[in-house]
Amino acid sequence: MPDSRMMNKNGMVSVIQTRIRTDPFKNHYDLVGKELGRGKFAVVKKCIEKKTGKEHAAKFLRKRRKGEDCRMDLINEIAVLESAKSNPYIISLHEVYETTSEIILVLECAAGGEIFNQCVADNDEAFTEQDVIRLARQILMGVSCLHHNNVVHLDLKPQNILLTSARPLGDIRIVDFGLSRRMDNMKELREILGTPEYVAPEVLNYEPISTATDMWSIGVLAYVMLTGESPFLGNDKQETFLNISQVNVDYSQDVFEGVSSLAIDFIKSLLVKNPRNRATAEECLKHPWLSGHPHTPLLSSHLPSLEEPVASQSESEPEPDSPAPT
Ligand code: ADP
Ligand code: MG
After folding, report:
1. Which residues of 278-306 are buried (b: 16+ CB within 10 A; e: fewer)?
2. Measured distance CA(301)–CA(62) in Å, rounded
3. Which residues are catalytic?
4. Please, are residues 258 and 282 in contact by the beta-carbon 8 Å criterion?
5. What is the enzyme's main class (predicted)?
6. Gap from CA of 204 to ligand 2 centroid (Å)
7. Which of 25, 69, 141, 210 has the smallest set of CB atoms within 10 Å of its CB?
């Protein structure tokens, strides 16, 4: 566990346990296939470990960005991954390599890609509410582990929530700890971070950031997963920011057609302007929308296989304990 001496004033952890290897990455891995994804400063590619034949995802991070040395940010990203090692819903870190210009994180490969794809998919490929219930519980269990360790993710959005497989729908892996910070022993963190559509009002207003900041983003995530619409997205950045600071959310039947009132109630417990009044990850897991489904298995491996039809899973016969349609 890092103590305060290992942190700088911005909540970044500077001590890690993982050995940083300086021998060539290519001696140990073959890159295969095309890119898995990319962000602002990183490219992620699939690779196979020569020794084991196992598939991994290699995240190539440049150490210099806009002329500045960012090595400490990358060490912080590694430290956060280490702190959540035991949680199945946080992507696991296998190895780290360093070259003169890059740091390479060898991560578990989440082959199902970003949940973003299903959020914007047509009806037959989009998530059902039952899917969202199962995935939201997993996201919350991952985030609750981070928050338990006093870590805030600060960039929770559909591009940073991956799936172990897309079809059949697998399990969640949270990725991208590039903006994550430790909150303990730290003066207030006030920074403009994250992606406009998903950031909480306090971030825009330059007010203190806390674990509640992530909870706002989970509210936005749940909204997008259930409706396919981004609740605060305006025609431009300015309009988006105004929608967020006014908590201008459309909860109408039009948007939430076929979604239970419990789901809407869940979202309403998170899209609350005052961070103190937002539900915590623990509270969310106890919300009736998520806790009222003792028969919904948490893991995809426990779901009935598609080949064996199960009567209670048929669309025409909803389970007796499924949420009442509004
Ligand atoms: P950035 O900090 O640049 O946003 P991310 O860690 O979010 O970098 O990675 C960029 C993209 O690469 C992700 O949005 C995702 O599509 C893909 N990706 C990242 N990690 C993995 C992984 N472990 N398995 C599969 N795809 C990944
Ligand atoms: Mg990202």
Report:
1. bbbbeebbebebbeebeebebebeebeee
2. 37
3. 155
4. no
5. transferase
6. 20
7. 69
